[in-house]
C-alpha cells in the first residue's frame, strides 16, 4: 500500500494516508516506522485517510493486529476516513479490534468530520509538507 504519515506538533496530530492496494507488508511497515519515529507522541490525535484505497488485500489478522498495537501504544483519539462500503467494513473491524472505548475512535466518510472530532477546526486542511515517512511501492 502506498502510504505516508506526517506528524504535526503544532496541531498535536498525526496525519496518515493510504492509497492504492492495502497489503500486509506495507501496513505493518508503516506502523513500525510510526511507532519507532522519535517525533511520535502517543497523546497526538490520529487521522487515517483511506479514501483513495482501491484494493483491500491486507489480511484480517494484520488489520486486527495493527489496530490493537496502535490502541495499546496510544490512548489518543483516532479517526478513520473511508470512501467505500468495503473500507467502512474494514474500518469497523479495526475499531472492534482495538479493544478501546468507543469514544476513542471515529469511523467517517469525510475529512471535516474527522478533523472536528479530533478537536481541530473543521477548516483544517491536510498538511502540505513532505511526509515524515512514505512507502511508495510494495515490499
Which helices and strands appear, and what pairs or packs with what?
Elements: E1 3-8, E2 13-22, H1 24-36, E3 45-56, H2 60-73, E4 78-81, H3 85-97, E5 105-108, H4 111-117, E6 133-135
Helix pairs in contact: 1-2, 2-3
Characterise the protein shown here.
The chain has 139 residues and is an alpha/beta fold. The chain has one domain (3-135): STAS domain (Transcription Regulator spoIIAA), CATH 3.30.750.24. It is built from four helices and six strands, in the order E-E-H-E-H-E-H-E-H-E. The chain has a six-stranded mixed beta sheet, with helices on both faces.
Report the strand count.
6
Query: Helix proportion of residues, in percent?
Result: 25-40%
**CATH topology description:** Transcription Regulator spoIIAA
CATH class: Alpha Beta
Low-confidence stretches: none
The number of helical elements comes to 4
Concise summary:
It contains four helices and six strands.
List keywords for this structure.
139 residues; 34% helix; alpha/beta; Transcription Regulator spoIIAA; globular
